Fold this protein.
Amino acid sequence: MRMDIPASTDYSAFLQQQLATQPHNVMAHVLGDEQIWIKRAGAPHGTGRYRAMAVLAGLLRLPVLRPVSNPGGPAAIATEVRRLTDLAARGIRVPVVLAALPNGFAMRHLGHTGEEIHSLGNEIDHAVQAGDTATVLALWQQGLETLSEVHRQGTCLSQAFARNLVRCPDGEVACIDFEDDPAAVLPLALCHVRDALCYAHSTAIYLHASGTLAEGRERWAAWVEQGGAEMREVLATSVRRMGWMRRLPESRRLGRDLQRVRAAYDLLA
């Protein structure tokens, strides 16, 4: 949706107007030469699945799998605005928050106006399809380096899947989607391992498909060595307790989700 408004636009007023009228919870708008996204609060989420995940984490003795609840509604908006503001202050590239209200907020588009930006996961997948193994590894390494920078700043992501890391026009990676705050309920070392496992789960399948898993293992080991001692200990313990994953079949007929889990274990182990 394009609207020609002066450069001195009051973002708060425009946000309030669009929250009351836009048909979808997340929409892009063009204000003059600037593209912004407006995110409106959705319905509050139930807690049943989080309780089930907590039970599973206890049974598997994997505290890193303890759920971090996303309550939805205005609480999720408040969390995301707070996290985006905090990450930006730490020098992490995230969307700039332009205005915020209890039921929604406006943020600046990470790319050029009218141009789509792609997730790191999509870009790695495209490189796999093109048979460009050098680019697969380079993009995958860029994701690891993004995690390292976040962790060096004493914080964590929310869900560090490759779909939540996006490549900006200048080639740098930005982080998105912060409706929950793992560090509010988990020790930071667990949050860092959680980031690592999310990234491995979402990307190892690309290494497997491109024949670069052996090189990926070497890079992964080097990356882990750069982490803190507590993080390395938690990760090693978690991987040991995930040993049952090596028995998972590799058949594609059992679904891509199962393939992702098996590929992630092959990388981690």
The chain has two domains: 2-108, 118-268. The radius of gyration is 20 Å. The CA atoms of residues 119 and 166 lie 4 Å apart. Residues 118-268 form one domain.
